[in-house]
């Protein structure tokens, strides 16, 4: 058992969440099922998906395959999914849609349920539904994605349950210091999506030199930089060897000088379709988009 993948962070409700996990955005159904199975076989605990990815059913099958292959139990997996924007804003619609998500995932609960985006005029009503899902035990923790300070402040003004997690884009090219500081102050755990900046940093000279010094890959150095800032980090790969490499980041430490070098790469520019999405319920049809099998 890879003990590094058992490394956990305590959320504000006391739940222990793995610090490193596997994300499955932009993967086809066959790829998703296989990579989830292989992740479990390689001792991964945290698996992150979403209705919008269109592959929850494949995640569910991959988890069952992995549990069968390894003899592990469902309780050994920390499963995250997210509420689709098109299901937000109506309490009954959201609860019904989430029940269908659980069926696809072949489970009666998820460990973490997130609002995928803070859709204008809908996220507070959506949060009311998540609070009841949490109270009913269908989610062990609830949180949000992509909330900035303005929307998080508004949510907290209406919420009875404090979000446990805010999943945001975070990598050496974008640090989002305002919301990071806010979440630290409120005891909301931060989780990084696109931790490698969509691959744009893997050939960076400064990171390459640091990687050579530690006899690690550039990807391992970047992931370590995020881990040392107490982020939960989601990696994505369909290659078993890279899964192992991504997990092999707990046996070295970046120095303050190395961290400062990586910090200097910040441009505060999002890498993936963020500007197109914005905060509205249906910009350019994106809100209604769910990935189709084979679309990637």
Automatic annotation (TrEMBL):
The active site is at residue 53. This is Aldo/keto reductase. Coiled coil: none annotated. It comes from Limosilactobacillus albertensis. Substrate binds at residue 116. Belongs to the aldo/keto reductase family. PROSITE patterns: ALDOKETO_REDUCTASE_2. The record marks 82 as: Lowers pKa of active site Tyr. GO terms for molecular function: oxidoreductase activity, acting on the CH-OH group of donors, NAD or NADP as acceptor.
